[in-house]
Structures are given as structure tokens and as C-alpha cells.
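Checklist before submission:
- one chain only
- standard amino acids only
- sequence pasted in full

Submission:
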Amino acid sequence: MRHGTRLGIDPGDARIGVAVCDPSGLIATPVETVAAGRKARSRLVALAREYDVIEVVVGLPRSLSGALGPAARKVRAYAEQLADDLAPVPVRLVDERMSTLTAEAMLRGQGRKGAKRRAVIDQAAAVVILQSALDAERTSGSAPGETLHAAPPPGRAVPEETEPE
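Returned file contents:
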């Protein structure tokens, strides 16, 4: 397991849930919910710098069949922009199927209801996404998901495509 703090992100159309893990990569905890919009990426970059992260893990909303639908393509494009903003900090896309349902069940189990649950559901989903990535890395010995690379500066060649890890 690589040592270092990671940021987990559950992107959505209205809100973006954010979580962080301890430097040993054992446990993910909620940080905040960022309002989606023009200033969201700058807030995510500020959080990544504040926590001095070694990488950012972004949940990719695949369909239950594993296909990439419109929502997944939108998240991928957003994550690519975030990778440009955060370079050289890597951004990884990980499968987030069922993360919100898992987070809902977890919050319901804690007795959170209605508006109180809605206020933190995105953070809880970010915790589920990041914790799943941490657990997968600890089990397999390699970072899960797909690493996105920052776009090269204008006038530089695009690096060769590599297989997802």
C-alpha cells in the first residue's frame, strides 16, 4: 500500500461529495459537500492542496452492466479537466456502482433521516468510493481504476496510450 493521503470525489450535477483518507490509507472520512458549478473545480484543487494528496480518486458512474453511459462520459470529461488542474497529482477513475445506495443504507443505519441524510449523502458516497479504492489497493497491491493524465501543453506531442491499470 502506497503511503499518502488521497481525496475521494463523488461528482454529481448538483453537489460533489468529498472524502479524505489518513496517510496510511486505512480509513476514509467525509470532508464536505461542494456545490457543483463554476467554482467547484477550484475548490477541489484547493482541498487537494490543503490535504497534500498523492492522488485524487473520482467515482465513475458505470451502468449496472458496466457500460459507460452519458453520466459516465460527463464525469470522465470533468475528471480530465480536474487532472489538468491538479497536475502532477494523478487523478484516478474508479467504478462507483452502488456507492450512493451503500451510503444511503449506512446513513439509514445510523438513524439519519430526510434532510439530515440528504445533506451528507454525497460525502458518504465519496467515503464509500475512496474506501473501496483503498481496500482494493490493499488487497491487490496495485492502485485500482484508470489513471487520467493531464493534457500536454500546446505544441507538445500526446504520449502514447497505455492500458488501464
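Reviewer check: The radius of gyration is 15 Å.
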